[in-house]
Amino acid sequence: MDDDILTIEESWPGTTIKGEPGIVSGILSLSRMTGGELLLNLAVGPAGGRPEESDYVEFVLAGANLEALRNALNNV
Q1: Which residue from 11, 13, 49, 61 could staple onto 38, CB 3.0 to 4.6 Å apart?
Q2: How far apart are CA 60 and CA 54, in angstroms?
Q3: Rounded to an integer, what is the distance from CA 41 to the centroid of its chain?
Q4: What is the pLDDT of residues 18-42, one digit of tens each?
């Protein structure tokens, strides 16, 4: 079972590819997987939109990539 570490939900002004103004919403979540890896999920779409209107990206961070992320965050 994964352990949730962090969830951030934000909305901000944005524009479509055609230049139409709107509001964009995003959710970033970070959880630790059973093997110790970190799972980073990002969903971005229109505010109040249906799940199928959002784009999703998922990264599994382990080993050298996980250590690089820790180092970067420690130096912010």
Answers
A1: 61
A2: 20
A3: 4
A4: 888 888 999 999 999 988 889 999 9
